[in-house]
Amino acid sequence: MWSDDEEQGTEPVEATWEEHSQFYRSFSRFMSVSEHDRRETVRVFFIEQDVPVLESPDIDFIPTNMLSGFFLHTHKAEVKMPSGEVDKPVIDDNHDGTVSIRYDPKEEGIHELAVKYNGEHVQGSPFKFHVDSISSGYVTAYGPGLVHGVTGEPAQFIISTKGAGAGGLQMAVEGPSKADITYHDNKDGTVSVSYLPTAPGEYKISVRFGDKHIKGSPYFAKITGEGRKRNQISVGSCSEVTLPGVISDNDLRSLNASIQAPTGLEEPCFLKRMPTGNIGISFTPREIGEHTVSVKRLGKHIANSPFKVNVCEREVGDAKKVVVTGNALKEGKTHQDNVFSIDTRNAGYGGLSLSIEGPSKAEIQCTDKDDGTLNIAYKPTEPGYYIVNLKFADHHVTGSPFTVKVSGEGTNRQREKIQRQREAVPITEVGSQCKLTFKMPGITSFDLSATVTSPGGVSEDAEIQEIEDGLYAVHFIPKELGVHTVSVKYKQIHIPGSPFQFTVGPLKDTGAHLVKAGGPGLEHGEQGVPAEFNVWTREAGGGTLAISVEGPSKAEIEFKDRKDGSCDVSYVVSEPGDYRIGLKFNDRHIPDSPFKVYISPAMGEAHKLEVAQFPTGCVQADKPAQFMVRKNGAKGELDAKVVAPSNNEDDCFIQLIDQDQYSVRFYPRENGIHAIHVKFNGVHIPGSPYRIKVGKDDVDPAAVHASGKGLGDVKTGEKTDLIIDTCNAGAGTLAVTIDGPAKVAMDCTEVEEGYKVRYTPLLPGHYYMTIKYNQMHIVGSPFKINCTGESLAEAGGQETSSVIVETVAKVSKGGNRTGVILPIFKSDASKIQSKGMGLKKAYMGKQNQFTVNAGDAGNNILFVGIYGPKGPCDEVFIKHTGRNQYTVNYLVRERGDYILLVKWGDDHIPGSPFKVEV
């Protein structure tokens, strides 16, 4: 590449383009793109209007004949040059599932390489790289680590210093995580550099020579977080203080407490019954000095509140005084317990949180010796680099985060992944036809029902149509802007994913937390048989949906876009065992992902079995129920268990009635939706697990709503709250979880309309609050909360805080025993039109009629009343003919003047009250 004359000090010879490109050719070795998703497919359109308009330069359009036929290139690469022009590199098929990309640059500067498959960017695309045209004597850098990488895997590149003379080489990597950097001098004028990123994001790589940036520096590498598994545990350690006064257990439920530190930081704290019988508080001391404890009932201080508590120096948690010992924080082995010890005896009071992230979800066990010391054991199943975050009192202990190199045999888990671009759905307008689709094969549409609740609280039944076999659509026409709740039930039980959020008008928020997924393929499956599920991305806006299946065998994944913000996914695996289904939207896991699914062996004779006399409707808790199972000649063992909403499992009692028929008895012990697993030779029989509702209380997560400042923008160090309204939702289990940059002190107390949740964030950033009622997300959950302010703790992996409450049945404030709440109507009675003879004149003994048109008057209830000389008339009949059009008939038996009142909600319509002459 460089001439010998240059090294002897003579005038350098101008290098040719061919010589330049030799230097950069080594870069192409590192760039490959998988093409295992799908083979090239030919699509033919027979009607000329159906040919898509190909404005995008990303698609090749190659006409084959006059009949509008064409095909799409499935893999494609383009280079955008610094001048803005687009150039095409050469794509070589390696015939091993990868392709190589070669490119000879023609310009200096930053280039962008876009690599697409099936019209969609591959992971990390577009890649950026820098091109020089300089002679020897300059320092240059090249390699994939300057462009892209994966968390937990070393990213590598090479620095060439050939002929550059003396000068100090300096390098720095800045990004979302601390990156360990290693160098290796190759003794040939080049240095191999490797750095280990531990969090996804953009990393800035600065390379300096003689205190000056080399050409192209700083470089920006896109690090993705694919394939990382995370596990965490928390061990609480709190200071306890007894407060004066005696309080009954009933009063304890309605009290809440908070503690304010000398600097003003206020956090919720927990009330508990002390052995003395007095009330006590439990909190984590963060500062030295006098703290103020407020204990309130329904917002008012109890007697003697606020209390004063003094915290001395030795009580405040100090992460620097935590002693960690053990080689397991440097290296570990797969499939065995790697143990290290933690000593917090001299570190004061504080909670301990531990998270381990790496190629597998390492199982963690904690042995608390009750003397301030603990033993932690983790068992990874895959080799590679693991990141261990260890925090005490919300601060990293010395040395954290630790990078651990784990060696040993893996589990040979196979992984298959596809990526699809999801376009944002056009904005829905008031009055337009709305559609929400879902796939549920093998059911009857008679057992499906749907309701739509508007932002104002008006609930209406919605129409369900079967589009094709097993594919259903809910149709409705919204009458107002905002977030609607769509509940879809099968046999009176919400289908997976229901209740749904459906925004009419512009989306208020977008992102992975608004993607929903549900279906049998995320719960169980059978080897060799397609397992199906639905994904709804409508509310999340546009982005990239990545679907991965990991387990004992490789999966074949099929994807079908329904073009309405939803899609079908099915996958087939060839081996039974535990699989993990990962769903990511814009590189972030959707709620409840990854899903753990057990794929059972091939059904074999289990398909012969059938269930009879299964209980319909509700069954009672603490009372036995039963159903029959016919074997129909199958040979083998029958097994059954019942899984309660709390995940408690109980065996069913199986009794042989005759040679081919069994009775299965089960005894539910709690209210809610139970799953009954019926297996034959260890394999689910058709339809298993069966879902059944236990108890009369109709627990409905669609009726639960959350509101308050705590769901909006919050500040660090400030106590904030929200109300979860459970009126008319029945008694159930309320679970609130907050995921974010730091743990939060959180409590939940009962209030008149439901439950109040209070929390104090310590670090700025995005927090995600999940609110579930009987294991089902309420509408809007998880909520994205933006927190600003100063950092009051140290950052380090995501932290989770949660609180669970067994709720009691609540009714609205009016004390209405039936629990019916009138919705908030938005209407205008002045826009109502009425006409007909019955508004002016009526005839005795005949049906007198008039019509009311409330189509433009919003939503409300029509009230009609007629009063005559001797009291009310005999009958009034109101018929709704659709779209807020009404026909009113009435019958009178006496002569005289009548008063006709027509009201739309609380307001008279124009002309009311009317005078009617009989």
UniProtKB/TrEMBL annotation:
InterPro entries given in the database record: Filamin (IPR044801), Filamin/ABP280_repeat-like (IPR017868), Filamin/ABP280_rpt (IPR001298), Ig-like_fold (IPR013783), Ig_E-set (IPR014756)
Record-level GO BP terms: actin cytoskeleton organization
SUPFAM superfamilies xrefs: E set domains
Assigned GO CC terms: cytoskeleton
Keyword list, A-Z: Actin-binding, Cytoplasm, Cytoskeleton, Repeat
Filamin repeat feature ranges: 76-131, 131-223, 221-311, 314-406, 404-504, 507-599, 601-694, 696-787, 824-918
GO molecular function: actin filament binding
Lineage of source species: Eukaryota, Metazoa, Ecdysozoa, Arthropoda, Hexapoda
The protein's name: Filamin
UniProt similarity note: Belongs to the filamin family.
Coiled-coil parts of chain: none
Compartments in which it is found: Cytoplasm, Cytoskeleton
Domain of life, per lineage: Eukaryota
